[in-house]
Design a protein that fits this description.
This protein is an alpha+beta fold. 21% of the residues lie in helices and 38% in strands. The protein is built from three helices and eight strands, in the order αββββαββββα. Strands 1, 4, 5, 6 and 7 form a five-stranded mixed beta sheet that branches. Strands 3-2-8 form a three-stranded antiparallel beta sheet. A hairpin with a 5-residue loop joins strand 2 and strand 3. The protein is globular and about 45 Å long. InterPro entries: Nudix_hydrolase, NUDIX_hydrolase-like_dom_sf, NUDIX_hydrolase_CS, NUDIX_hydrolase_dom. It comes from Paenibacillus cucumis (ex Kampfer et al. 2016). Pfam families: NUDIX (PF00293). GO terms for molecular function: hydrolase activity. Keywords: Hydrolase.
């Protein structure tokens, strides 16, 4: 997140428009891989912000490896979200309006492994069951994309 960190030095916690990707990884049982976030201590999707020169798909691939140690053969674009509902205030005070491309990854190789300081744990969840401590932003995205009922 070098680009966003550099911007934060200039604008502080003011709202930024942040483009990025979210990656949905399903196992053979159809369960979704989520990470327990270090900043909010809740369960969220794998993903992050676009770096200069990257495509949204390249961001998805980079984030999947950086956060979970996984690679994918293919990324299917599910939808793109933007607007007021994509506002998020991080626990440390930074504010963003996300423009988020949602990808479903296929042909996964590797074993889920926490690779950076953004996650504490990785776990697959059955989307037919309530997910305890789900990040509200993740819940919104999964609901609007039709993966869970709100």
């Amino acid at each position: 997140m070098g680009y966003i960190m550099d911007l934060r030095k200039l604008v502080g916690t003011r709202p930024l428009i942040m483009a990025g990707s979210c990656v949905l990884v399903f196992n053979e049982q159809g369960h979704l891989l989520l990470q327990k976030r270090t900043d909010s201590l809740d369960w969220g999707t794998i993903g992050g912000s676009l770096e200069p020169g990257e495509s949204l798909e390249e961001t998805a691939a980079r984030e999947l490896y950086e956060e979970a140690g996984l690679r994918a053969e293919a990324y299917k674009l599910i939808t793109i979200f933007s607007g007021q509902d994509m506002y998020y205030r991080y626990p440390h005070g930074d504010e963003v309006y996300n423009v988020m491309a949602i990808y479903e990854a296929g042909g996964i190789t590797g074993s889920p492994t926490v690779m950076d300081d953004e996650g504490l744990e990785l776990r697959y969840f059955d989307l037919t069951q309530p997910i305890p401590d789900i990040n509200p932003f993740t819940k919104y995205v999964l609901s609007k994309a039709g993966y869970i009922k709100s």
